[in-house]
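Escalation from tier 1.

The customer reports that the assembly of three entities below gives different structure tokens on two consecutive runs. Tier 1 could not reproduce it. I'm attaching the input and our single run for tier 2 to review.
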Amino acid sequence: MATATWTRRHILSLADFTSDEYNAILQTALSFRQVLNSRTKKVPALQGQVVANLFFEASTRTRNSFELAAKRLSADTLNFAPGSSSLSKGETILDTAKTYLAMGTDMMVIRHQQAGVPQAIASEMDRLNTKVSVLNAGDGQHAHPSQALLDLFTICRLLDPDNPRIELLEGKKIAIVGDILHSRVARSNIWSLTAIDAELHLVSSPTLLPQYFKCFGEGRPGKLFLHWELEPALKDADFVMTLRLQRERMTQHLLPSLREYHQYYGITRDRLKLCKPDVKILHPGPVNRGVELSSELMDDPEFSLISQQVTSGVAVRMALLYLIGGGKQE
Amino acid sequence: MATATWTRRHILSLADFTSDEYNAILQTALSFRQVLNSRTKKVPALQGQVVANLFFEASTRTRNSFELAAKRLSADTLNFAPGSSSLSKGETILDTAKTYLAMGTDMMVIRHQQAGVPQAIASEMDRLNTKVSVLNAGDGQHAHPSQALLDLFTICRLLDPDNPRIELLEGKKIAIVGDILHSRVARSNIWSLTAIDAELHLVSSPTLLPQYFKCFGEGRPGKLFLHWELEPALKDADFVMTLRLQRERMTQHLLPSLREYHQYYGITRDRLKLCKPDVKILHPGPVNRGVELSSELMDDPEFSLISQQVTSGVAVRMALLYLIGGGKQE
Amino acid sequence: MATATWTRRHILSLADFTSDEYNAILQTALSFRQVLNSRTKKVPALQGQVVANLFFEASTRTRNSFELAAKRLSADTLNFAPGSSSLSKGETILDTAKTYLAMGTDMMVIRHQQAGVPQAIASEMDRLNTKVSVLNAGDGQHAHPSQALLDLFTICRLLDPDNPRIELLEGKKIAIVGDILHSRVARSNIWSLTAIDAELHLVSSPTLLPQYFKCFGEGRPGKLFLHWELEPALKDADFVMTLRLQRERMTQHLLPSLREYHQYYGITRDRLKLCKPDVKILHPGPVNRGVELSSELMDDPEFSLISQQVTSGVAVRMALLYLIGGGKQE
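Tier 1 run:
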């Protein structure tokens, strides 16, 4: 699919993404990744358009990544701060979104602690016959599509720097380790990494990896496996994705101590020996050093793709804004 | 009055506005409203100028509206966040304003919980012989001129889309319903809507509409009426403005329950039958659905002007910044 | 030294600054000061570059000054808000900085409550072979170089408006009065004001001016004097710098009441008579009026350079970003 034929207005979940769509994003992101290395870094693609970052759940890192992506496309950005907003005055979320619509917003980047809010806003925008696009920047435990897409871009670009495409994943083995249950990052990655004939292995403690996750693999081209122990998942793995461990899970009795977690599921140099020799590690950040993975591994450019993920994040978000914004790159 | 002859430096209150000034704003806002519909959306009128949003009282909606207006005129914007500011270090408000003056601010958009702060800062700027303009974005219960001007623009543009002017209000009947006593929006609208030979009807409970409001109508071209019951105000009305009900008024024993308020003063489809058939409803937002007006009316484009008010807000604020900034539109 | 030969990548402290470096900054700041007076105010020097304001310690004033400087050089800016950031999620400061590096940040402006954080980040950026520049915007009680440089620019520009240079300080007498012990502003000014053969007099109570400050003067071209009483420091002084008094010092029993402080060390019109007739007063702001100096003196343009310091701040910060950014001014 050429970029010119992109038709999706909103990016809410990767559940129904086609290979053509994945590849359109990967190829567009590649061209923006090259713009980032050039001297100018900016393109006028979205000049005059307004991107509103409606982060009902606070986040500096992801908001800054979207904001920078928008600015490099020459869009104007608005930032919504939940603390001082009209929400505390009794306004509904849909009314807040409609206010930004009426102000002239062209694209809304939405993060919310409740799953489904970006979808609800997108439906309302369509019902009102607007052309506004909604980009899910993380909703509850449901989805975080731009994170999974930047993970995909990071992996595929490593496999073929000049021509990243989802078919490169065929036959690869990827392990996702950590708090799968509460992770929107894991859920979005499950969709993208089973969209092709790859092997995806999920690993966690029984409290954080319910058996119903098996259903996500049904009818997908890829194969999905669940493990409560690390070793079978790491065996001959090409990529290991670690997830952020939220410390509040321990007070909820879902986890033992951080030290014990590291002992069972932490990625160390020793454990990496089970994997393919050229295995690479990903992490969506921010990292608890010494918990999800050992501090030295995180900093080892031979294994860690973490900083490349952040850089890819800006390029992939530029691609998403560009594709759904219908801009013409000059 | 042609735009070229605009002389007012600050916009603090509408108390002494002339019809010529209202019309200069309405006509300038119309031209910017058309820019907003064009592909480019931006004009270089205020390039290099600095607009500082000094919001001592937090507000996302109004600040974003002013910020977007400034950006579409190509100005640079600075945002002042009271929480983390030098105010907590013992600095006076005038010294804060003088710091922004010294940084090179050209226009200050000021919101403060105390009435009179924008006026005090404007006086200080004049006393220091600066050319800085001050725009009151809401001070205590005193004034919120840009809100009343966007209400006026919304109404007049409905009456004549190609030539909005204040004279279109002649002979019209407008009702303002709600917490008049504490509302800066009501006070500013009283000035604009009595500046011409129209009928303005204020409605609220006795606790929220003191008799001294009659004085605001004295010597004005328009006629001002006060009511404690809704029906006579709605009878044959052309426009109904509802005000936001602040929930804290109930703990102050100024109001019964929300349900009782809605029963007495809430605008419903049934009550609208008292008005002219083509009556329109305005609300400054954010709305408490089902309190000030019924949820279905709020969403009915046949009656509700609410989203047009928000859109007009950006155009009117562009007009204000443009006129007081002395910019030349290209 | 011509601007073209500037080699320093980071601005962390003034301890080892050369006269040539001071003069390169003063001359570059002068040219930007003139840009600020022109109609356009903006230069495209840093177009496409990203300046990240990482203010781990909240500050509106300094952040806005750096932000405006960056915007006037046409850079894109990112603002990091510690409250809602990944720091609260267990990320280390170096990892936060590396995330901004990976996003494509070219310059980091860093404020932190702990001394040494900007240095640590700069070392890490160098260790990683990046070209990222770090600008210390205040770290604990260690240094605040941009403040001392804007003080220097304000003084030298007064002495020769067309050719500010550090040599103009030769033979001048400068007094710094206030809470020297806890002041990063004082420490940075001690480095710049002893870099030339001037007389620098520090004045405070014994609790706020330990004897070890004498060491800062050793081996420096300038002469450093310590006083516990105001009079000998003010005698024939050309410039008096007052420091902000932090109210929390009183609860720490380091100070008597504000009134007593003002009685002993407050600068008043009467006490200024001890100084040279054309003495000038500086203060980094925000000022506690009637404590560090009398309210009327603060507003007297014959004596006070305070608002010129703020204006100089934007020009000096433009110069710093320009010089370390290696931009070409057009």
